[in-house]
Amino acid sequence: MQQETLRLDKLATPLPRGAIEFVGVSKRFGATTAVSALDLRIPAGTYCCLLGPSGCGKTTTLRMLAGHEQASDGDILLDNTNVTGLPPARRGTAMMFQSYALFPHLSCLDNVAFSLRMQGMPKPERHARAAEMLALVEMDSYAARLPTQLSGGQQQRVALARALVTNPAALLLDEPLSALDPFLRGRVRAELKRFQQRLGISFVHVTHSQDEALALADWVVLMKDGAIEQQGTAMQLFDNPRTAFVARFLGGHNVLALPQGQVAVRTDRTRLAEGAGYPETNARAAYTATLRALEYTGTGFSLALADATGEELGVLLDEAALAAHPLTPGDQVALTWDPADERPLDPA
Description:
10 helices; CATH 2.40.50.100
């Protein structure tokens, strides 16, 4: 990993590329609207995550940007050029698929060089460029191997090199980490962010993983039912969810029904009331809930609760507090929090 960092550091910091704009973009499949009048601006050199549940329109949005789906309405611009009607090869984007889609009969070098071959680049030149990309992702020593001789993480790096070899202004990633084990996922996640920062191009990354989006993205676009529910930095979305959907989907929040309306309170700022050893002098009146389960986290316990309406809630509790006031599933508890930690939510 140290060698890889040195190689990346040798690259001169480039000017940012890959400014993306969707202007009133919709996509319909028959009577079904997958994306509805989407307006979105992604500045050049931004790591953007399109986040949301299955069927929210995030993958369709990515495929329209790539040119693999044609927009029903609206325009898509890349670095101020309207690419709406252009074929994928002429857009200045590159796509990295979830399955990696490497050719099993080609070596790593020839896999990376394949698109340059299709462009008619002479073999020595395309091999030199492919070798440069393999070196960038620390896979140059595997150039002669077939994809079946590589681990999942190594295949992912070769796929990344193949996507970058055409020097795109924007790299499009469709659930690129979902096939990796948790340890490797964290490592590759860090690599993707470092590559994006050093290359200076925009990465548009589709995921349903909140952790992935919060860790990677300069800009998070949370989608629901074909439209943007909320967008902003990861910190903006997490600290100030606009709707109950955002608070619940991002996790780490309790959505509470109060007389003045719904509010979100972060789980780590929700406490058990005085009866469980947490006296609060400046807190909301207790909010009753039923304990459903306790999970040991290594640094304490995560309590899974539900209120009278069935709303799922959570509290983090340290070991000493639980030892002083033992709890078992089925117990009634009272929650409290500082009013300053409330985030009012828009009505549904």
